[in-house]
Structures are given as structure tokens and as C-alpha cells.
Amino acid sequence: MLPPMPRIFSGIQPSGELHIGNWLGAVQNWVKLQYSYESIICVVDLHAITAKYEHASLSQRTREMAIGLLACGIDPERATLFVQSHVPEHTELQWMLNSVTPIGELERMTQFKDKSQRLESVPVGLLTYPVLMAADILLYHADLVPVGEDQVQHLELTREVARRWNAEFGRGESYFAEPQALLTEAKRIMGLDGQAKMSKSLGNTVGLLDTPEEIWQKLRPAPTDPARVTKKDPGNPEICNIYHLHRYFSPPETVAQVVENCTGAKWGCLDCKRVLADNMIAALAPIRARALELREQPELVDEILAAGAAKARAIAGQTILEVRDRMGFLQSAGRLIH
Ligand code: ATP
Ligand code: MG
Questions:
Q1: Hey, which of 49, 150, 202 would you mutate to test ligand 1's pocket, going by the most ligand atoms within 8 Å of its Cβ?
Q2: Ligand 1 in contact with 191 (CB < 6 A)?
Q3: What is the pLDDT of residues 42-98, one digit of tens each?
């Protein structure tokens, strides 16, 4: 018998539109990895309620995120794609893990500090977000977690939580293996504002499913090197976000041309953005076309998610039974509920 494939787990919040940062930093990698790893991919709606959100559209955004992932090439025949709240074991394990997670570790998480400082009243959910993420990963005994750089700190915490739980309840074994991060070259895409990482919640994104016109309207006003006041002022591509995006969307000859035209003041920033827009539009066109088709078939998408949740629950339920046992809970005398 062949050894089992290593398992990966990854999640994305339905907190807004799937954007090119998510795609380059994470989703593209998931699509590639599904051929060599057992892949579990989750739309993490329970994470998305840790920030203010519109409840009337959460379900639609959740389906829309699944559509985006399928359109990017996640193959439900290969990967298990599901919605986090459809597998209640995630929240149960989170509660168990809360008991071994130090509050001080949560308070020093960069994402917590960034997101909480923008709020007047900080919900507990924002603080315990990384514990739910640890539960997501450990529930499936994932070996690898393909994420963007912003999530590496949370993954470190997951490893620490696993160690602490093992020390307390592992009966001398490493029941939870410590998962490893898997980064892409595009581990941190900056937002179009040039101020922060591209984030669904910051409105500084290019949506993966944006129309060609929307893409252009978003790129057009984006800041570039401030030294380039007029066409005649030479610029430094290294400090220009538009240049960095060229590196992911334009062929090497064009990237070289961009450097020459920018440093030699041979064109204006708008010319440079137009070329980027055209290449981006071409790269995203097939994804957009598949998403438009899937939007016409919401029942099919919901069926894929239901089948994914059933597969995920088969693994998650087993983990929860073992965790309850190791933590000393009285087993139900009736049918085991999970
Ligand atoms: P939110 O603003 O709601 O936190 P987000 O855009 O940060 O949304 P997440 O759902 O939190 O997206 O993250 C999904 C995946 O995308 C994670 O693996 C994360 O590391 C990755 N990711 C998010 N933003 C970027 C970025 N700017 N560059 C590279 N990877 C990113
Ligand atoms: Mg995020």
C-alpha cells in the first residue's frame, strides 16, 4: 500500500471579495497542491463574524467565496471544499483548546493588534480568532498549511497550542502533530493604497472577479513612486506597488521594459498601469468566465459544499471523540453525538 498523502488545511474568510492578494499568496498554491496533497479547504464563516459584518448577505458571500475558489481551479473531486459552520466540531475543539491557550499570547498577535486598534469596542472573538484557526488545523491533523505571510504568526501559535495540549493530555505522545507553514513567492501583496497589505476588509483590493472596467478604475488612481510628478521625472520601480504587480501578471520582457521606461522617464505611470491592467484582465478572464457559469448554478455549488462537509465531518468527528476521551469527558451512554 502507498503511504498516505500528507494533508494540508487552508481557510479563507467570506469577509469580502476574493482578491488578487488571496490568489497570489494562497489560493493559486492550493490549486497546485491539491494534486500532491490530501487537501482540505474551508470557507471560514465563523472567523468572518469576528469583525462587523452584514448578516443579511453572509450566506451569499459564503457561496460566492466557494464559487471563487472553484473558479480558480479547486477541484471538488480532489479537494474537500466546505463551509466551517457546517462542521460544528471546529467550535467544539476551539473550546477545548481555549483551556490551554495563554491569553498573553493572543494579545500579542499582530492581526489582533491591527484589527482591534481600529475598533472602539473589541469583541472577544477577535482575540480568540487564532484559537479557532488552531482548531481548524488540528481537527484534521494537517501537516502543512499554505498561507500568506500574515498568517505565519497564527500558525506558530497553533504549534504552541498543540505542544501545550500534548503536554497536558497527550499521554506521552504527540497526538497533535505540529503543522508547518507553506508560503508562496507572493507572500504579501500590498493593497492598492500602498499603505497596508491587500485585505478584503480594507477596501484596497483588486477583486479576482472584477470586470475589466472595474480593474482599470481601481488601478488608475493607485499611488506610485511620488518622485514621478510628471512623465519626465524618473522613478524607482522597487518602491512602486504597480511594478511589483507587473512581476506577477506581466511576462519578463514587459517587466524589464517597465523598469527601463520608469527609471528612464520614458512613459507615464498611467501608461504603465494600462499595460498592467491589460495583462491582469487577460490572466483573470478564464477565472471570471468560470465564476459567471457557477453563479448560474447555486444548487450545484451548495451540493459540492454539502458533500465536502460530510467528508470533513468524518475526520473531524473522529478527532473530537479522541480529544474528549483524552481530556477525560464522560462518554454519552446513548448514541455518540458529534
Ligand atoms: P480580511 O481582511 O477579512 O482579514 P484577507 O484579505 O486578509 O481578509 P483572509 O481570509 O484573512 O483574507 O486570508 C485568506 C488567505 O489569503 C490567507 O492564507 C492569507 O494569508 C492570504 N492573504 C490575505 N491577504 C494577503 C496578501 N495581501 N498577500 C498574500 N496573501 C494574503
Ligand atoms: Mg486576513
A1: 150
A2: no
A3: 999 999 999 999 999 999 999 999 999 999 999 999 999 999 999 999 999 999 999
User: Of 52, 113, 200, 266, which one is the catalytic site residue?
Assistant: 200
Mean pLDDT of the region 173-180: 96
SS (H, E, C) the chain: CCCCCCEEEEEECCCCCCEHHHHHHHHHHHHHHCCCCEEEEEECHHHHCCCCCCHHHHHHHHHHHHHHHHHHCCCCCCCEEEEHHHCCHHHHHHHHHHCCCCHHHHHCCHHHHHHHHCCCCCCHHHHHHHHHHHHHHHHCCCCEEECCHHHHHHHHHHHHHHHHHHHHHCCCCCCCCCCEEECCCCCCCECCCCCCECCHHHCCCCECCCCHHHHHHHHCCCCCCCCCCCCCCCCCHHHCHHHHHHHHHCCHHHHHHHHHHHHCCCCCHHHHHHHHHHHHHHHHHHHHHHHHHHHCCHHHHHHHHHHHHHHHHHHHHHHHHHHHHHHCCCCCCCCCCC
